[in-house]
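For the sake of transparency, this paper describes our internal protein records without simplification. An entry from our holdings is shown next, in its original layout:
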Amino acid sequence: MPASDLLRLKRTVWESLQNLARTPVDALSSVAAAIFSRGATGACSHPINHLDGVEQIVDRLLKPMKIAMPDLERRDDVLVAGHFAGHDWVSATGYYYGTMSADWLGLPASNHW
């Protein structure tokens, strides 16, 4: 894939991750379905652990996180794209943050970031 196509792919992934943070809770399922494949998996820290499929990604991670932090934002530390082993890859690391206005994962709401 030409470098210009990789840059477009990288931008699409970045915009999609940003969009997930901005999307209202009631629209998360449709937005996530447009970004992730149905068989997508996720690995999270305890107590979420393994997520199997886009439905679990939404129901066990994204919705509860968005409910706890309605002003959710995403910041990426690293966003890279390239070609490896016959496939085009995009990898992103970063974090979501917001005002914790509801309890989540056993943590009480602090009404702070």
